[in-house]
Specification:
By secondary structure, the chain is mainly alpha-helical. The chain is built from 3 helices and 2 strands; from the N terminus they run H-H-E-E-H.
Length: 69
Amino acid sequence: MLRRSPGPCLRPGRGEEGAGFLCLLDGLKAERILVASAALGIGRAAMRRAVAYARDRVVHGLAVCLSLH
């Protein structure tokens, strides 16, 4: 069971009661950028591997990348 604190629990200079979520989002901006850059790196690596596979894979005597339309 959650209980409300008896007194104000505000960070100095950080707004009003109930604005904690906005403070949290403000602090997570750097983490969002890090996660986005990691996702882009993983996507690029996946694309490189897929292209290499399509170039190397031969089906019916023809490379897969040449049979794609």
